[in-house]
Amino acid sequence: MKLTKGEIKAIKDYHNDEFDLETLYPMKVARGKKMLWLIVISHGRRELHDSGYPFIKIIGKGDDGNFYNLGWHDHFISYVPTNTDSLGKNVFRVAPWDNGPWVVSDNFWSSSTFQIGTPPYYSDYDPNKVILQ
Description:
Elements: H1 5-14, H2 27-30, E1 34-42, E2 56-62, E3 67-73, E4 75-78, E5 82-88, E6 91-96, E7 102-104, E8 113-116, E9 130-132
Parallel strand pairs: 4-8, 7-9
Antiparallel strand pairs: 1-2, 1-6, 1-7, 2-3, 5-6
């Protein structure tokens, strides 16, 4: 995943310089891991999705202290309340708001929609955890 210097600085400014793009784990490794929060970065209008909107890049902060590449998406939806903070231009932190834990799906892959939570009418709904898929 490529990030601009400004995007990296925005993340580091709010997270004690612990973010290092070189140690960003791939999404295959993120499967099944608990995430404390997400970083959502607008890729800007350089390259647009088929829908005509800019891509977003998502990075997860694991409860193990590591950062995980959760891919490129067109949009994200949430079935649970979230707390969204701006870290800088086009960089946002999305965190649980009185729910959790957030767990990356065991078969996670980067698709157009990034989904936080599962609707209660889905067969794999689990009220004890929020699935990221």
